[in-house]
Amino acid sequence: MAGCLGGGGSDGLTIGHLAPMGNVLGVGSKRTAEMAVEELNEDGGFNGEEAELITKDTRTDPSEAQSVTEELIQQENVDLLVGTFNSETTQSILDLTSEFDVPFMITGSAAPSLITDSVGSDYEQYKNVFRIGPINSDFQAESIADYCAYLNERHDWSRVAFLRDQAEWTTPFGDQIPDLLSERGLELVYEDALSIEGTDFGPVMSDINDSDADFVLRFFAHIDGGDMLTRWQEGQYEFGIEGVHVPGMHPSYNQLYSGAATYETTSQSGAAGVTPITERTQPFVESYAERYQDAEDAPIQAPMYMGFNTYDGISVFKEVVDAMGTTSTRDNLDDFVGEMLDVDFTGVAGQVSFYGEGSEYPHDVQEERGGDDTITNYPVTQWVSETELECVYPEQHRTADHQMPTWMQ
Questions:
Q1: CA torsion, points 138, 278, 380, 226, in degrees to nearest 10?
Q2: N vs C: which end of the chain shows fewer Cβ within 10 Å?
Q3: CB of 259 within 8 A of CB of 170?
Q4: Residues 80 and 103 sit within 8 Å (Cβ to Cβ)
């Protein structure tokens, strides 16, 4: 390993943040990273040291991510890397971070393979890698299937159309959703994987309508479903739109589409701060909104899901280096890993703890489960007006019951 290039401790503590800055999700993550560093510096620092934050734009491009990550590691001597959004970009820098023993906290990418094909296949080489959130796509698939069972209980919806991005993070959904729905007594009546390069939703909506689906379960991160939602509202199609829609997490999304997103749902880390997932969730969102209410660029009211995880990641980092008694993480990687595996941290998006070596998902954030064994740390929100969201699942975080579109009632 590259111990010859020491960490940034001798030159001051440095945290590197990676995000697509042309994306509002990346902007929100950068802002929460700044909030965390500023607040924690004021609260005694990181083992007594003040941290410097440096953000680099990955542009959602693997080659660009490799370039800026190398700069952060070799020129800035970072003690921690945090961030990244799409799984393909995250995958592209795993070898680089492990080569130089740099702790790397993933805060935006959900593909299970990021963990199973790195830490899970060569623990010693990739032990620097941890995922703060969201829960991986295998757990997301299970959680969403249980949410579908809730929709069946509430509305008697049993016929499901299934759409997804053609992207790494959705592969587990394609592999697992059909069986998970069948196990819960639901029928899959339509299925398609859509190109992230562009989709004509006219034929898609017609096909779903012809399938007589009760609702569409869609997983979009790279596809903006705004055209789909506009067609849905204008055509008053007789099916709900459920699942995961990352663009729809934008706090002003429904206003941007003149209310077309009303009644759509999306799962998202932190539930946009509309429900007290922990005692820290809503104060965090209120602080964010106050700080950025006059910002010229979005997101203003809340940071979107990656920002919740980035804030938690930097907060966990402080707890760990305080326990280590040093911020020189790259020269003390084994100690860092040991402390990380002892973490049980109450964050703004939920409780943070990690699977250990030898588990199916070593160093992955653990899912939380309720009394009925259903996953609880992947909450679902629903647009109920142009400006308002409610949390509709799971029960312990629910602020309102799920509503079907008025034209279906």
A1: -100
A2: C
A3: no
A4: yes
Multiple choice CATH, 137-274+370-408, 3.30.70.260, 2.40.110.10, 3.40.50.2300, 3.40.50.1820: 3.40.50.2300
- CATH class as words, domain 8-134+278-352: alpha beta
Per-residue pLDDT of the chain (409 residues; tens, 9 = 90+): 333 333 443 468 999 999 999 999 999 999 999 999 999 999 999 999 999 999 999 999 999 999 999 999 999 999 999 999 999 999 999 999 999 999 999 999 999 999 999 999 999 999 999 999 999 999 999 999 999 999 999 999 999 999 999 999 999 999 999 999 999 999 999 999 999 988 899 999 999 999 999 999 999 999 999 999 999 999 999 999 999 999 999 999 999 999 999 999 999 999 999 999 999 999 999 999 999 999 988 889 999 999 999 999 999 999 999 999 999 999 999 999 999 999 999 999 999 999 999 999 999 999 999 999 999 999 999 999 999 999 999 999 999 999 999 999 9
> Is 178 buried (19+), middle (13-18) or exposed (0-12) by CB count in 10 A?
middle
pTM (predicted TM-score): 0.95
Burial state string for 362-378 with b = 16 or more CB within 10 A and e = fewer than 16: bbbbbbbeeeeebbbbb
Assigned token pair, 29: 């993550």
Rg of the chain taking only CA atoms, in angstroms: 21
Whether cis (ω within 30° of 0) applies to the bond prior to 134 is yes
CB atoms within 10 A of CB 43: 9
Cis bond leading into 112, ω under 30°?
A: no
> Rounded to whole angstroms, how far apart are CA atoms 24 and 226?
16
